[in-house]
Each structure stands twice: as C-alpha cells, then as structure tokens.
Specification:
By secondary structure, the chain is α/β, with parallel strands linked by helices. Helix content is about 30%, strand content about 20%. It has a single domain, classed as Rossmann fold. One of its GO terms (biological process) is tRNA wobble uridine modification.
C-alpha cells in the first residue's frame, strides 16, 4: 500500500493542499444540451426534435409530432379539401409558436392562403374518453352462434376512437373562424408564387425544370439568409422554419405526370424532393408537401416519390363515392392511410397502433379516429377465414 502512495504522503494532507495530479480521472458523462426552441420538444423514442402539425391526432399518429429536418408527404384527396386544411393547420401552428413560415403554391396566391388560417383556441381543454366496445344482441340469433359472436367481441383489444397522447402538444383551432390579422401579421412569412418567378421568355419545354429549380433556390436563400442552416454559426436566437408546398407534380407546376404514363421529365419531381430532403437535413426546417397522387399515371414513380419523403399519408375522401351515403360511414368524411413512417436515429421505426383510420371535420376541429366499422369488419373477416382454414385441416391448426 505504501508503494502506491504519492510522494510526500499526500493522502494525509488536507484536500485543499493536495496536488491536482492526485485526483481521479473519472468524469461523469453528461448528455449534450438539447436545443430549446419554443413550440418544440424532444421525441421519447429517438430524441429527435419535434414540432406539432397543428392536428393533435396526427401528432399522435406520427409518434408525437413531426421531426425537424423531415418531409411529410400528404397525398391529396380528390377535391383537395382536407389536405389543404392540414396545410393550414400546420402553418397556423407555426404562427402561434412564433415560427417563420415559407409557403409555395402555383394556383392560389400564398397571401390568400395565409389569410384563411384557422383561428387558434388558446384556452381550450379537450378530454378524450375511451369509447365502450360494441356488444351484439342475442335475441335474433341462435344461442350458440350469439355466444360465439359475443365472445369474439369481448376479446378484441380495447381502443380509443380519438387518437390523443397523454401530454398536450400544440394547440387547437376553430375552423369556422379565421385567424385575426394582428396575430397572423406578427409572424414572419416568406412566399413563393410560381407565376411571379417564371418569365415569359422561359422555353416551354423547361418549364417544370425551371419551376422546381427556382423553388429550391428560393428555399436555399431563405434558409441561409435567415440563419436556419446548422453549418453556419448563428448569432441570433434559433427558430424553426415551417415550409408548406402545395400540389407539387400538377400541371400548374408545368409537370406532365398526370397526363402521360411515361412522362418526358419523370425525374424532375424526384430530383427536387431529393434536394429538398438534403437541404432540410442540415437546417432547422420542416416541410409539408401535398401531391395529387390520384392523377399520377405511373404508380412506380409514385412509389419513388413516397420513399423520398420521411412521412407519407394519403387522404381518401368519401365525396362522390358509395360510402358517402353508407349509414355506417356517416360519422366520418374519409379514410386515412399511412404509407411511410420515418427511420430516424433508431433501428426500429415507430409504427401506429391501428391501421383502420378515418378522419372527420367537425365544426371546430379536424380529427383522426379509429374507424370501428373497418375494425369490426376486418375482425369478422379474419374470424371467418380462420374458421375455414380449421375446417379444411382440423388436425393442424397452424
């Protein structure tokens, strides 16, 4: 023991008189300080910085919110009513959180879109209660069959109709009113209106290449000029840039994806999305892109577009279909399909709890819920299918 002591018997000296070289080299490992920006919070799954989409049920569906540096793809419904509404929610949440906005469109003036943002409800408290499971009556059926049906419903997993997390993130909005001008004008908005950026001298064959190139260039200028680029040292306080891109791939952008099975410039949109995602990865920005997927003839190309985005959902409206008059679907306005989930900082990506999702637009709120009509129909189909398999081969239930 004496051979291991330091010269001068420093172990017997007071702590203040000891040499600094005698202290241990062990240091407590601390986590890096997270970026603190209003309207954001870290993800509990992977620590990624999240922002709210403005729709609480959509935040829950995406794993708590929309990750900064990612792209959310929304495949528009047939009449572009509900997808346009989600974009307005996304921008309205940015106004309330004092984030900067970037809105790009080819048909509607971005100033007109910003004037139609929903009115925020800052003092609301929404309590989501679970819905009781459906039960079937035994009066009109045979006793044995009714007991089997009731037993099957009792063993279904209990689900909530409205998707909502335990902790509130984001705000609620009244779609029957528009945001007050003084609240909207307090936010810094950047706009991109395609007719203003294309000159008359541009050749027609390069229209789509010029439109996407001008849009990407405008985004780069805003990100670098306003200090959203993480590569450069920023002197001012950090903030989030919310980007809304409306109806990309349509004829209004000069694209021919909706007219031909083999479009001439089929890689114009995918090249833009590739550059957009690379630009967002190195900046404090998040984008919501809407595309009229039902007009795109090449389905393989649509698959490539989906894979170039981090999140992808599709809205299927009931307008003009048989489900619009179906009494079982009277409580909903359409179905929501999840086509792509993000793979960020983790080996296993977040997966939604349910796939049978529907949306509805109430008087004051757009919400996404679990559709019990589809949920029970699939359960009945699965029960019948399993019963047929067991009847064909009763000795081997597997």
């Amino acid at each position: 023991i004496s051979s291991m002591a330091t010269p001068g018997n420093s172990a017997d000296k007071p702590l203040a008189e000891r040499s600094p070289f005698t202290t241990t080299s062990f240091q407590k490992k601390t986590r890096s300080k997270l970026i603190s920006i209003p309207g954001t919070r870290p993800s509990v799954q992977n620590g990624q910085l999240l922002v709210s989409t403005g729709v609480t049920s959509l935040d829950y569906l995406l794993g708590g919110g929309l990750a900064v540096g990612t792209v959310l793809l929304i495949e528009e419904d047939q009449y572009d009513s509900y997808s346009h509404m989600i974009v307005k929610y996304f921008l309205a949440e940015g106004v309330v959180c004092q984030h900067e906005l970037f809105m790009a469109a080819a048909q509607d003036d971005p100033d007109d879109i910003l004037q139609e943002l929903p009115h925020p409800i800052l003092d609301d408290v929404v309590i989501h209660n679970p819905v009781e499971q459906p039960t079937l009556s035994c009066k009109c059926q045979d006793s044995l069959d009714s007991m089997k049906i009731a037993w099957r419903y009792q063993n279904l997993p209990k689900v909530q109709s409205t998707l909502a997390s335990s902790s509130r993130f984001g705000h609620y909005y009244d779609v029957s009113k528009t945001m007050e001008p003084d609240i909207r004008q307090a936010a810094k908005c950047h706009r991109f209106f395609l007719p203003e950026h294309l000159t008359q001298s541009s050749p027609a064959q390069c229209l789509m290449l010029g439109s996407y190139s001008a849009l990407l260039k405008s985004l780069q200028e805003v990100i670098h000029r306003e200090g959203f680029d993480l590569a450069n040292a920023m002197s001012k306080s950090r903030n989030i840039l919310r980007i809304g891109l409306h109806s990309l791939g349509s004829a209004l952008w000069g694209d021919d994806l909706s007219f031909h099975v083999n479009p001439r410039h089929r890689h114009a949109l995918t090249t833009f999305l590739y550059g957009l995602r690379a630009l967002l990865r190195s900046s404090l920005s998040v984008a919501v892109v809407t595309i009229s997927s039902h007009l795109i003839q090449d389905r393989a190309l649509m698959g490539s577009i989906t894979r170039l985005c981090d999140n992808a959902i599709a809205l299927e409206s009931f307008k003009g279909s048989e489900r619009e008059t179906n009494p079982l679907c009277k409580d909903y306005h359409g179905l929501l399909h999840v086509h792509q989930v993000p793979h960020l900082n983790c080996l296993a990506s977040y997966l939604p709890d349910h796939k049978d999702l529907a949306f509805k637009l109430k008087r004051k709120q757009f919400s996404i819920e679990v559709c019990f009509y589809l949920y029970s129909a699939k359960s009945q189909y699965s029960h019948v299918l399993n019963k047929r398999v067991l009847n064909k081969n009763p000795t081997n239930p597997l």
